Amino acid sequence: MIKAGIIGGAGYTGGELIRLLINHPDVEIAYVNSSSNAGNYVYEVHTDLFGDTDLRFTSEVSTDIDVIFLCVAHGDAKKFLAANPMPSSVKIVDLSQDFRIKGTSPEGTGFVYGLPEINKQAIQTATQIANPGCFATCLQLGLLPLAANGLLTDELHITGVTGSTGAGQKPTTSTHFSWRSNNLSVYKAFEHQHLKEITQSVVQLQPDYKHSINFIPYRGDFARGIIANIHTKFSGTEEEAVELYQKFYAGQPFTHVSTQNIDLKQVVNTNKCLVHVEKHGEYLLVMSIIDNLLKGASGQAVQNMNLMFGIPETAGLKLKPVAF
Q1: How far is CA 218 from the centre of its chain?
Q2: What total of structural domains would you count in the chain?
Q3: Please, what sign has the CA dihedral across residues 304, 309, 310, 315?
Q4: Catalytic: 134?
Q5: Model pTM?
Q6: What reaction gets catalysed by this protein (predicted)?
């Protein structure tokens, strides 16, 4: 059994990770760290886990584990690892943004960007993974087949709507139910932090890409999920685009190309990404949807762990969507 430690287990991503790992056939959770909740039962914070586990939060950190997940705020992963050096035998999966951009890893370490659809071989031999961001995952999976074929020849126009859980568990003005319900708002227009990840992966596959990526994110009035629409100039036909996407994602267990329109209820509570493409005049419209807490965070973290330990990529991740 793989012994796992979780740091920052009281937040949304920590809760989802615990839910996945207590049902994983090859994993035993050694501890769940949360200084503010030390001694409390996990189910007292993550009430959906009542009856599923008797784990308690702890303030202790042990290195007697095989893998550690860092479900901490951005900037805190670097601080944690500086204060708690992990032996080389412990694999690390960081869910913050601290190590996602090349050149940000501390000297002597080498975090691999954990998007399996383009970095699977590197992930399989890695000891440290920088788990991608939620918007970054959704948008990249919509773009990468075009980049891999050198077909991004113009600027990209993107809109994306995310659920309130994307903002984290701590309540804020823009996550309060009375403000978010029946409401919609733009934030971080053209400046979202995940643009650096998206650009990095696009250039990885299409080094000559120099155009703008124009991204307008929206706060949605729902709890979880991301739906993104991308349009850009494309000289081929719709049939050619569908074939290109299907070929790129052939053999990928969680990313699927749909020939029908897609909606969030198809992916919420799953580790799936669904992609749909349409041709409109000279433009290709690409739709991409994920659950921001699973394929956009904890589910992908488990997918990466599976690859690192050489067990089936889908282990512990055969989840069913909530249809109603």
Answers
A1: 18
A2: 2
A3: negative
A4: yes
A5: 0.94
A6: N-acetyl-L-glutamate 5-semialdehyde + phosphate + NADP(+) = N-acetyl-L-glutamyl 5-phosphate + NADPH + H(+)
